[in-house]
Structures are given as C-alpha cells and as structure tokens.
Design goal:
By secondary structure, the chain is mainly alpha-helical. The protein folds into two domains: 83 residues, no CATH class; 91 residues, uronate isomerase, domain 2, chain A (Orthogonal Bundle), CATH 1.10.2020.10. Helices cover 46% and strands 9% of the residues. The protein is built from eleven helices and three strands, in the order αβαααααααβαβαα. Strands 1-2-3 form a three-stranded parallel β-sheet. It is globular and about 55 Å long.
C-alpha cells in the first residue's frame, strides 16, 4: 500500500495530527460540487467504478486526453469496463496530480481496496468494486450520510426545473441539498447548441 493511503495522509507533524483529530468528526458543509441531484434523488446503486469515479468528471477526461487515450474510451461508445481499463492503463502517469490521489483514496476509504491503479490491477479492481457497489450502503443517499454531509450545494443551470431538489427536500434523514446557479450555457455563444438553449 502506498503511504499516502494511510490514516496520516497529508498530516506531516504533531500539530497537523492534533488539529485533524479535533475536527475529523465534524459534519461537512459543501458549498460547491458537481453532484448529480437526479442520481441522489433516485438513490439507485451505482453500476460500476467508472460511473462513480469518471463518467462525468471532466478532470479525469482531460488527463486521459493528455495521455493520448482515444475519445472512444473517454466519452465515446466503449463500455464502462473498457473505459476503466483505458484509465488504469495511463494512471501511473498521473502521479503528482490530485486526481491520482483522490481516486486512490476513494478506493481505500470507501471500497477497502489498497491496490495501486495500473494496467495490471485494473481488472481485479473492477471486479472488487462491482461487489462493493452492490451493497445498499453504497447507494448515493447512504454514502452522503456516511460521509457526514450536513449541507451540500449542487451546480445548476439557471433554467433547471429543480424537481429533484424538491423531491429530496421532502426526504427526512438525508443532508440538505441546495441549488446554486452556474450560467455557463448562457455564455457559451460559440457552441452549436447555444441557439436552442437560448430558445
């Protein structure tokens, strides 16, 4: 297991460990994220590790593109298993990038998997995570509670209808999930879908 996966991740001295011990059990107030509110409201099990870690993560996509991975294995029509294998094939090249660390930390802390991601371990990690994701505790709402989220703010388009926010607001025992507005689509005037969006 790589040392950064341990309990002292980023804690390099006694003072940092003392501060972390004092705050580690506090709830999380997340002012900005890209959570899929529909996914949370439906609370269905995630199908696979690609869906959890990379299916909608543009940071991962850009890293894969920079390593020469064909678009078919990023946003194209390859299967999620093929996309995961492609990501794992270049993952060692990402060392030093935060994405390298946060996906390994997710594997370690949420899945109990301490393997390093590479082309040799890709299939084993894929299979192990499929089994873990089948557990009810790995559904979106249960994960948010396990992570001690108190409030989180999604990133929403100003014309979103917010129906999933409305349905989540009625559920007791889950974190408050609030909308925030990000008008990217209204500013992307050179995108092909801009006229349709403005309509």
């Amino acid at each position: 297991m790589a040392s950064f996966l341990g309990e002292d991740y980023l804690l390099t001295n006694a003072v940092s460990k003392k501060i972390f011990a004092a705050i580690k059990d506090l709830p999380i107030l997340d002012a900005h994220n890209h959570a899929n509110v529909k996914e949370i409201a439906e609370n269905k099990a995630y199908r696979d590790i690609w869906m959890v870690e990379a299916a909608s993560d543009h940071y991962v996509w850009e890293l894969m593109r920079k390593r020469g991975v064909p678009e078919k294995f990023i946003t194209g029509d390859a299967t999620n298993a093929e996309k995961w294998i492609a990501l794992a094939g270049v993952f060692e090249d990402l060392a030093g990038n935060p994405t390298y660390e946060w996906i390994h930390l997710d594997l370690h802390r949420r899945f109990g998997i301490a393997k390093l991601i590479n082309k040799e371990s890709a299939k084993a990690i894929w299979d192990e995570t499929l089994a873990v994701l089948a557990r009810p505790a790995m559904r979106p709402q249960e994960l948010l509670n396990a992570m001690k989220i108190e409030v989180m703010c999604s990133t929403d388009d100003p014309v979103d209808r917010l129906e999933f926010h409305e349905s989540l607001a009625k559920i007791k025992g889950i974190p408050r999930i609030l909308p925030t507005w990000r008008p990217d689509k209204s500013m992307n005037i050179f995108k092909m879908d801009f006229p349709e969006y403005i309509k």
